[in-house]
Structures are given as C-alpha cells and as structure tokens.
Amino acid sequence: MRIVLFLLIFLAAAPVFADDWQVNRVRGEVTQQIGGTWRQVSRGEIIPTNRYVRTSENGRVGLIRGRETIELEANTQIRIKDAGADLMTTVLQDFGVVSIEAERRNVQHFSVQTPFLAAVVKGTRFTVRSDNSGATVEVDRGVVQVQDTVNDLVVDVRPGQDATVTKQAPLLVEGRGAVAVFSFSGKPVINGTTIEATAENVEAAAQASKSNNAGGNGNGNAFGLTKDNGNNSANGNSSNAGGNGNGNSGNSNAGGNGNGNSGNSNAGGNGNSNAGGNGNGNGNSADSDDDDSAKTNNAGGNGKGNANGLNK
Predict the structure, then answer these.
(1) Which residues fall within 8 angstroms of residue 151, CB to CB, at 6 or more apart?
(2) What is the DSSP string of 114-151?
(3) What does the DSSP 8-state code read for residue 167?
(4) Which of 126, 167, 278, 305 could bridge to 220 as Cys pair (CB 3.0-4.6 Å)?
(5) What are the 10-residue block averages of pLDDT along the chain, 312 residues in total?
(6) Is residue 143 a contact partner of residue 121, using CB atoms and an 8 Å limit?
C-alpha cells in the first residue's frame, strides 16, 4: 500500500516532459481550440501538437520547452506541429506576431511558416510578422534562412537585417551587411526581384536605380504663403516618368533653402530655389512687410520650380 501511495505522489509531482510545450505566462484573453470550441488558456497548461492557439487584441502568451520559447503578441494565431524536442518543430503562423528563441544546434530544427515565407533556423532569436498582405522576418541573434515560398527564393538573414515578401513583390532584404539571394535551384538573384544576377542584369538594375528617383525629376511650380523666415515648402504633384516629369504644387509651408526674387515687398534677395528636392529654380514672394530674405521652395520633386506667395 505504501509503495502504491508513493508512486501516485511521485507521478503527481513529476515535471512536464522536455518535449512538451507549456504555457508559462498569460496576459489578457488567450484561447486554444479543443473539439471545435475555443477555451481560455491557463498558465501551466500543456499545448499539444497541431492545436490552434489564438490571442485577442489584449492577449499575450508565452510557451516554453526547455530553453526554447515561443511568444505570441496580440491578434496572433498559430499551430505547433511538433515532432519532438530532438526533431523539427514547425510553427504554422496564420497571422500576427511571433517571436522565437530556438536552442542552438548543428542542424536546422525549428521553423516558422506563413502563407508567404518560411524561416528556418539552427538556433537563434527572431520575430515573424504576418498578415494577409505579406510577412517580414526580423533577426535579433544568429542567422535565419528565409525562404520565399511564393517565388522560390532563399536568403540567409543576419542581425540588423529583415526580409519581406508581399503579394506584390518577391523577397527583399534590407539592413546593414551583405545580402546574397538565391533561387531554389541555386542561381544568384538580384535582391528584391526574381531576375537572375548575371553581370548584364546587375548593371542594368544599377542604371535603372540611378535614373529613377523617388518623387521624380522634373519641373515644379509652388504657390502659397511664406512664413517668417521666408522659406517655402510646397506640397506638389511631381511626376515620375523614368526620372523626368513635371509637377505643380500648392499650399506651401515654411521651410526650404534658397533665395527668391521679391515683388511688391521689402523681402529682397535673389537666388536659386530647390523645387522638389534637387535642382534650380526661381522663387517669387510678394506683398510682404518685412526685410527677411525669401528662401527656398521645396516643390516635391527634383528639378526646377517657381514659388509665388506672401511673406508673413
């Protein structure tokens, strides 16, 4: 009888198996799906393989297994397909934000899969953000292999870098350090495209990057009011047509660099203006009571521009 009693006490006090995922912290509303019903998750519960776990807008939950953790932020839903602590663990992320702390090993044993990309690791800390338009992987420590499962591309992402795949664009890696994107067949690919990285294609991409400036290169006109320092900053409509185009803007605000030609005022000063970023142009201010010099007009693009307004 004593032996039986001892066994019962021992089993009741036995710790969770090392390959079980256990809830170690819960905040707000966190539920799991059991038999088609969503039930509140409690601290200390075991989350078995292939079970849905979801956080509400005020919910947070942390799961732990040995030295590995899975953390879910608000409005997140996952399933864990677990083959055991010594084999591959896969987090199927439907949406939301998931952070992983994976134990370092010599083989890839942990992955997060979204509808757009998969992140596979040997051991690291990283975060995956996913919604219905795309997914992004941010690396805090170690190296994460990110696979663009839509366009069959792969890249190693390091700390300080992030990799994004969207419905509109293939795998793009941003941040500090070198980037080497490959197709699943092993061919190098230009970052942010599905174009093979031959010498000719790389040169063509570099030339295209030089000729296309955000905001467009062209002529812009700004009309509005200048402020105390005579600076105009016009919000205009600049075009981007192969780097060249025209833009007209209105409703200018204080700000900018340059000199303007005064008309019907004491503003005084002649010089060049910046119409939309980089370029030369003429700025005209009128009907002013002060002696401040009229400054620059920023018209929202690169090129020449004219600014007409009042100095306050």
Answers:
(1) 165, 170, 171, 194
(2) -SSEEEEESSEEEEEEEETTEEEEEEEES-EEEEETTT
(3) S
(4) 305
(5) 46 53 96 96 95 97 94 97 76 97 86 96 92 96 95 96 97 96 96 90 69 50 38 41 44 43 41 44 43 42 45 40
(6) yes
